[in-house]
Amino acid sequence: MGPMSAPEQQPIYTAAKTTGDLQGILDLQAQNLPAHISQDEAQDQGFVTLQHDLALLQAMNSPHPHSIAKLGDQVIGYALVMAPHWEARIPALTPMFQQIEQAQWHGRPINADQFVIMGQVCVAKAWRSQGVFGALYEHLCAGLKGHFPFLITEIASHNTRSLRAHEKVGFAPWVVYADGPTQWHIVLRRL
To answer: CA 47 to CA 120: how far, in whole Å?
Structure first.
């Protein structure tokens, strides 16, 4: 019998707990901002729009923590949770919240206590198309189930990879609106 080969290491899905976890989110976020990737890569691979700071990310991490995928100490993916009351701290999201307040789902408005925002999702380039995106969402939704009936996020229309990925993990199209030159898709998933 020959030596056994070590299994390929798989990510662990967990809640962001430490300052190191949050810093790992910020590092991965910075690598995927449009300013740090080519236009072709942004179109093909997707991108993140907002950049957070550590204090805001830490504050948003409670009472419902962000979900992360880790390989050892390295964060290779994340899905951020944001309660509606954080809108005032992130003015770029005000148009989305205005749309949510005006929209209805199956003829009824969705009140602020009925939903949480998935603030951003990102997977490291080497781990894309390997199930990390879907597993992050499953971990995030498992932690939120019973607290909120809806998870909502928005995606720029030119971020086609992200639009397709969200559809695959159960998000339904809800509202499309323009904010300046960008068209946004607000999508919703029942928890």
So the answer is: 10
Count of positions (residues) in the chain: 191
**pLDDT in the model for residue 191:** 94
State residue 175 phi and psi, 5-degree precision.
Answer: -130, 140
pLDDT one-digit tens code per residue, 58-92: 999 999 999 999 999 999 999 999 999 888 888 88
Distance CA(176)–CA(116), nearest Å, equals 19
Tokens of 78: 């994340």
Q: Looking only at Cα atoms, what is the longest distance across the chain? A: 67
Q: Which amino acid, one-letter code, is at 22?
A: L
pLDDT at 159: 85
Could you tell me which of 118, 119, 123, 148 has the C-alpha nearest to residue 133? 123
Three-state SS letters, 127-170:
HCCCCHHHHHHHHHHHHHECCECEEEEEEECCCHHHHHHHHHCC
Strands (E), the chain: 12-15, 67-71, 74-82, 104-105, 108-109, 115-123, 150-156, 172-179, 182-190
Query: Structural domains in the chain?
Result: 12-190 (3.40.630.30)
- Our measurement of the distance from residue 114's CA atom to the centroid of its chain's CA atoms, rounded to an integer in Å, reads 18
